[in-house]
Amino acid sequence: MELSVELKKEIQLNSTEIGERIYNLAEILFPICRSITGNGVRETLDTVSYIIPLTIHEIPTGTQVFDWEVPKEWNIRDAYIKDENGNKIIDFNVNNLHVVSYSKPVHKKLNLKELKSHLHTLPDKPDWIPYRTSYYEETWGFCLTHNQLLSLHDGVYEVFIDSSLSDGSLTYGEYKINGKTKKEVLISTHVCHPSLANDNLSGIGLSTYLANALSKKQPYYTYRFLFIPGTIGSISWLATNEAKIKNIAHGLVLSCVGDAGGPTYKKSRRGNAAIDYAMQHILTHSEYHEAIEDFSPYGYDERQFCSPGFNLPMGLFERSKYGQYPEYHTSADNLSLISPKSLSESYEMVMSCIEILENNRTYVNKKNKCEPQLGKRGLYKAIGGDNEAARKQLAMLWVLNQSDGHQSLLDISLKSEMPFALINEVALILTEFDLIAETREPEKV
Ligand code: ZN
Fold first, then answer.
1. Which residue, of 85, 91, 125, 161, has the fewest CB within 10 Å?
2. Integer Cα distance of 61 and 70 in angstroms
3. How far is ligand 1, taken at its centre, from the CA of residue 197, in Å?
4. Both 191 and 211 in a single domain?
């Protein structure tokens, strides 16, 4: 119970400042050119390691991971397109989105028609640069604004991409906080996007500071944070850590958590996991226009964690839904799209969900033949005479009636449509008065 109070204090005391801290980390990481492998990911994880002590793992190129193979490592130093006069008209150093991620090295001259077959723009958003990747096909390309494209004249252009695609490794970061039980909460976020803020520096920042806060507590659950490249990262982790899977009791994928939209929660494939109910409870009791969605096999790494062979109880938490906000995968997903305020709200929502998981217990009513007499035990006094007293009394009746050793506090909270915090509070009072007793592990897993 001490933990719950501490977590609450943490949320209240730092609710304005925590968003600033997450935003600051996003600002620091923004210029780095990340991809699914390479030095950009290493630099990012090294930066995060200043805040939480990450273990950095390297999985060699060519490693078989289920039906996939760890790809060659990609690194890039420079890239540009020059016009006939030698002017750099597209420069990787101005914006790293200008180069298609995983472009193979190239240095040659070509005419405008040939060049255009390697250019990507967004005609509907003529001032934005698109974000494009070519992980599994060896090609090269540039991304630019549509207005830049329209300004190109016939002529000869010099293209230069100083990149390397070679045997190396896939890098990911992991941080484990030991709890009182071996059962784990897995929190995963992707680290493979270059200069894009909401997708997913917001997720990296939120995960980092959640881990930082939990490392100062003595949580009930063991928490494992993964900072992995999208898709191939989660596949690689699952393939090389199958023995750990059985301990995962709850999980969340965090992505796009820094804009002002949503919040959005996509349920696990199971659809009835405790994490699904806990997130649903937090969001429906929030002041936002939340959206709760059923699982679908498209999105982020929940696709792998929830593949039928694992079927982990993991959902996806976002603010605006990926792919559905206009700035998604464009240069407009920059630091002005995310804010300390939204990051702080997201932190609070996820921390509140964690608090539910931490405090969710199952009780058995020790006086279960008819209702126990509350008055003679001084329970009415214990709940006070304020306006809340009637609600607390009702909450007590719910806890007493439903505590049969099977219904958890979260189940009771959902059934009664009363806040989890209230149900938890009266359960503690009833325990003190010896009317209910905790039966076993916090919940069915
Ligand atoms: Zn993305």
1. 85
2. 5
3. 10
4. yes
Tell me how many domains the chain contains.
3
Q: How far is the CA of 329 from the centre of ligand 1 (A)?
A: 6
314 and 193 assigned to the same domain: yes
Strand partners for 68:
65
- Quote the pTM value: 0.93
- Shared domain for 299 and 370, answered yes or no, is no
Asked whether residue 79 is domain-assigned, the answer is yes
Give the three-state DSSP class for 67: coil
**Above pLDDT 70, what percent of the chain?**
95
Same domain, 250 and 310: yes
pLDDT of 315 > 70? The answer is yes
Q: In the listed set 119, 136, 166, which residue is the last one of a domain according to the structure?
A: 166
Q: Give yes or no for a contact between 345 and 267, defined as CB atoms under 8 angstroms apart.
A: no
CA of 187 to the centre of ligand 1 (A): 17
**259 and 326 belong to one structural domain:** yes
* 169 CA → ligand 1 middle, Å: 21
Q: How far is the CA of 312 from the centre of ligand 1 (A)?
A: 22
Predicted confidence band of residue 387 (pLDDT cuts 50, 70, 90): confident
Which residues does residue 266 pair with via DSSP β-bridges, in sequence order?
293, 316
**178 C-alpha to center of ligand 1: Å?**
31
For 323-351, letters b (16+ CB in 10 Å) and e give eebebbbbbbbbeebbbbebbbbbbbbbb
Read off the CATH number of the domain in which 286 is found: 3.40.630.10
Separation of CA 309 and ligand 1 centre (Å)? 25
Distance 156 CA to ligand 1 centre (A): 34
Q: Which residues surround ligand 1, an ion (CB under 5 A)?
A: 199
Distance 313 CA to ligand 1 centre (A): 22
| Cα 289 to ligand 1 centroid, rounded to whole Å | 23
Q: Which of 126, 148, 166 corresponds to the end of one domain?
A: 166
Highest mean pLDDT among 238-247, 365-374, 379-388: 238-247
Residues 66/238, Cβ–Cβ less than 8 Å? yes
Give domain status of residue 445, yes or no: no
Tens-place pLDDT, residues 163-179: 999 999 999 999 999 99
Gap from CA of 423 to ligand 1 centroid (Å): 39
| DSSP-assigned letters across all residues of 115-139 | HHTTEE--TTSTT--B--B-TTS--
Do residues 43 and 66 share a domain?
A: yes
Which residues form the domain of 146? Answer: 75-166
Q: How far is the CA of 142 from the centre of ligand 1 (A)?
A: 18
